[in-house]
């Protein structure tokens, strides 16, 4: 058997040099640190949200003071407006790109409203003779589209309504 590169003894066999012996009082004072200073005033922040949803873009402007923010808006207003217009176009493109073929469409999502504790369809239901009191969510994948009940409990969910391509209406199956 070869010799251990760590020596023959165990490090636990020897008492550590800095460890006080039992019943010995440590007279060293504990290390203390100063409490952190209160945060300095961070200035003024102004946020522009490009829509109501979580997927909407957000532009945040910061300035050292409210007066500086006012001056910045006065001087850079046209540039900020240009940035907001460009951000809106990019956001629309990004939303379209990321929702196409993923089972989510913003067209159907914009038709739903939350009232009385339930999701309701605006302007009547998109489903023929729909009796679902829970509301429906639109899904599309490949060559099919359907409206599914939004009730959390699977046993209480209403039957799905699939798109009839001939009539353009959703029909419960």
Strand and helix order: EEHHEEEEEE
- Strand sequence of the main sheet, in spatial order? 5-6-7-8
Characterize the largest beta sheet: strand count, sense, and whether it forms a barrel: 4 strands, antiparallel
Strand content: 15-25%
Task: Write a compact overview of the structure shown.
The chain has 173 residues and is an alpha+beta fold.
Please give the structural blueprint.
Blueprint: E1 44-49, E2 58-63, H1 66-99, H2 106-109, E3 112-115, E4 118-121, E5 136-141, E6 144-149, E7 161-164, E8 169-172
Antiparallel strand pairs: 1-2, 3-4, 5-6, 6-7, 7-8
Protein architecture, described:
This protein has 173 residues and is α+β, with helices and mostly antiparallel strands. The protein folds into two domains: 44-99, no CATH class; 106-172, no CATH class. It has helices at 66-99, 106-109; strands spanning 44-49, 58-63, 112-115, 118-121, 136-141, 144-149, 161-164, 169-172. The termini are far apart. The model is unreliable at 103-110 (pLDDT under 50).
